[in-house]
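Honest question from a wet-lab person: if I give you the sequences of every part of a complex, can you actually get the arrangement of the whole thing, not just the pieces? Trying it with mine:
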Amino acid sequence: MVTDHLPTSGESLNKRLAEKGLRATSQRQHVYEVLLGLRDHPSAEEVFMRAKQSKPEISMATVYNSLDALVKCGVVRQVNVDRGATLFCSNMSEHAHFCCDDCGKVFDVDLKNSPRVPEVDVPSEFQVRKIDIALHGRCTDTCADCGRKETIA
Amino acid sequence: MVTDHLPTSGESLNKRLAEKGLRATSQRQHVYEVLLGLRDHPSAEEVFMRAKQSKPEISMATVYNSLDALVKCGVVRQVNVDRGATLFCSNMSEHAHFCCDDCGKVFDVDLKNSPRVPEVDVPSEFQVRKIDIALHGRCTDTCADCGRKETIA
DNA sequence: GTGAATGCAAAACCTTTGCAACTGG
DNA sequence: CCAGTTGCAAAGGTTTTGCATTCAC
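Yes, you can. This is the full assembly:
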C-alpha cells in the first residue's frame, strides 16, 4: 500500500500526471497500484473489484476516470482486441498482444526480437503517436492450461 | 442489388461461406453488399441502418450474425481501435488502421511499403492466424476536413 | 478559493440471447 | 426434412453522464 514502488518508470506518477495537467488524487494512485498488482490484462470491472477491497468507497466512474488519466499520462496501456470490455495493462515495454481465439486470454508478446515491426509507412499528414499490434490465433498447449483456470480475459 | 460484383476476391461469397459450413442467406449477401457500398469503417449500427433501406425487415441480430459470418469466412475484417462500437471493413488487402485522436476517424494505411511488419517473433506455442496493426495519432490537415463533415467513425 | 475530481445512480450505448417461425441444402 | 438462420423483443454487459460534494493546487 506504500507508494514508494511507484511508478515503474523513473519519473514519479504524480509528476507524470502534473505534466498533463491532471491532479494526483489518492484514487488515481490507488488504481495504478491495483493495476500493477494484477496479472494479465484486467478490465475496468476487474480493477474496480480489486480496488474496492482496500478502498471500499471508490466508484466505477472514478476507476474509469483514473484509468483514462493513467493512459493519458503514459503509464498504462489500453488494449482493445475484440468486442467486449477494454483491457488495461501496466507493462509499458514495447510489446504486442496475442489473443487466443479459443480461450480469449490475452498474452504479452515481446517485440525486442522482432526488428522493424514499428516501421510502418504512413502518409505524411498523419502524426503517429503509438502503435498497437494485436495477434490473433491459438495458444495451443498453453491454452489447455488457461482454458481450465480462466474463462475470458 | 445484383450479386455479380460479389465478392471482391476471386471466389464467390457463397462458396466461401460454404467452406466454413455457413449458409448463403439473402441477408448475408445483402449485408456484404451494403458493406462494400459504405465508405470508411461502419459500425454494425451503420450497416443496419443502410441495410434496412433496401431490406426493411432485417434485424440488428441478423446484421451481427451476418457480419460474424463474413468475418469468419474471411471477406470482412473486424476493427477494434478503442472503446465504443466495433467497426467493419471490406478492404481485405494488407493494411493497418490509423485512428485520429482528434476526430476519431479511422483511415486505412497501406502496408505494401512497410516490409517485414508481420515478422513478429512469437513463442512457438502460439499459432498466429492474423495480425491487426492499429496506429494512433493525429491526422492534422486531413483532420480539418473530416472533423467538419463527420463526427466519430 | 476555484476548478478538477469524486461518488452515486441513472442513462446510454453496444452486443447477445431466447424462442417461434422460416429456409437453404 | 432438419439444422442453421431469421426477426423480434428483452436481457446483459460496458461505459458515460449529471449533479452535489469534496479535494488538490
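Two things worth pointing out. The longest strand of chain B covers residues 127-138. Residues 18, 23-25, 43-45, 60-61, 64, 84-86 of chain B lie near DNA strand C (CB under 10 Å from a C1').
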